[in-house]
Amino acid sequence: MKGLGELERAVMEVLWAHEDAGGQPATAREVGRALAGRDLAYTTVMTVLDRLAKKGFLRRTRDGRAWRYRTAASREAYVTELMLGALELTGDRDAALARFAQSVSGNEAEVLRRALEDLTRKESPG
């Protein structure tokens, strides 16, 4: 999954927040209102939404004459793809992972430890 440009990322953040709050898929007008501080034309918002849908970041459905947009994946899934892509850029994944583990906070290290323990338990014959 490729990275997002600044405006694409802002649109995705609006939609992720909207969905996190329990909202239904949003229209271009609703997204534009949420981005009101950016002074964007309605057509610009529509273009960005269309581009994100074509890239596979959004799903859309018709609602009368308008389209309603929802994210294709969670924010966490997107960030995971970015992290995996970054790992592909290194010649030494083990060193990159070790360096990453050394750079996280104690709480984050505990989250990683639990996730790895859960993964190990699932893979163990039992």
Automatic annotation (TrEMBL):
Coiled-coil spans in chain: none
SUPFAM superfamilies named among the record's database cross-references: Winged helix' DNA-binding domain
Gene3D superfamilies: 6.10.140.850, Winged helix-like DNA-binding domain superfamily/Winged helix DNA-binding domain (1.10.10.10)
UniProt keyword Transferase, yes or no: no
Parts of the chain that traverse the membrane: none
Entry superkingdom: Bacteria
Annotated InterPro entries: BlaI_family, WH-like_DNA-bd_sf, WH_DNA-bd_sf
UniProt keyword annotations, A-Z: DNA-binding, Transcription, Transcription regulation
Family, per entry: Belongs to the BlaI transcriptional regulatory family.
Name under which the protein is recorded: BlaI/MecI/CopY family transcriptional regulator
Organism: Actinomadura alba
